[in-house]
Predict the structure.
Amino acid sequence: MPSVAPDASAPPTAPVAPEPAPSPPATRQAGERVSIPAGTLRAGSAPGTPSRRPSVEADLLEVPLPAFSIDRLPYPNDPAQPPRLAGSRAEAASLCEARGQRLCHELEWERACKGDGVAPFPTGETIDLGRCAADPSACASPTGVLALGVRAPEWTASDAEPRLARLDRTVVARGGDLDEPLAAHRCAARRAVAPEGQPLAFRCCAGSAPELDYPEVGAHRMFDDLDVDRATLRAALAGVPELAAYADAFELYDRDNALRALARGGATEADMQWELAPGPFAWSPSSGEQVWVLAGSSGDSTLLAALYPMPDGSFLHAASFIFAGETAPIAVLRTRVSRRELLWSACWGCAGESGVIRFDDEARIVIAQQ
């Protein structure tokens, strides 16, 4: 068969490099530890986080923590073995001490879970508990710690303060059982347990034990009228993305506007069984929680808003209700008999122009029309 000469005008073909072999997955070794540098933990959870417990969870308060190291996995910190459950905190502490380490403080546990961020779960905004249980390496926190409180709550060295403790439940555990609701697995979730009698997982830390207490959550009066000017409220709205468009033209409704809202339905303040709010006020619907409630106009619209004041002076959106293209006066009513609920109305007794502001079962503020 005659041979065919190559086409001399064609460019030479470059040699093709072989495909690199995929890197094998990192093999976890027994005894691995994670070094976490000194830094600031934003302790607790953001107000409005579903199922948070505001009475025992700080509002992302900044807490400086010294450097420490922590077991990558629950004790015995060996990927070839299941977590060992200790029947008491003293047993867990003793096992850590036998290794020249110590039981972790609850704030160290939370920093290992969050790193420098504030995401609710070690894996971010959500967590897949089944996947975490089956493959801890797929369930790393921002610091690289694995399976934090996935299969069982974990002992900590921290004692429960009075607002968290109940009867003999005097020590703090973090994390939850595999069959518990997701809320129990949040980085900020705290629970009080008895110091013995309940088998829990644990992990060990090293470094000087931090001399810290959990931040004070604080107590608030149920209602506190706010003495704030228009500029302050406009600045507050401007810093809330959901409501920033209404900030520049915001004008606060006052007591006279509230009386007008009642009068539109033929009612007076004397007809009310609940107290008429004279203006903006701070509301504590649950121990440890506080919300600013305000109503006003912005351009041709009416705004009813609930905002969470944060420790740094900023605000978060809790809930809002907007009458677009309508400047209707708003009345807000409150009572100490019903701490978790307020009433609002643009026309007392008029269908579709009244409603509630409610602190719901998932610890969220909801403004509903009725």
User: Anything to note?
Assistant: The chain has five helices and 22 strands. The helical segments are 89-97, 106-114, 129-134, 230-238, 255-264. Confidence is low (pLDDT under 50) at residues 1-25.
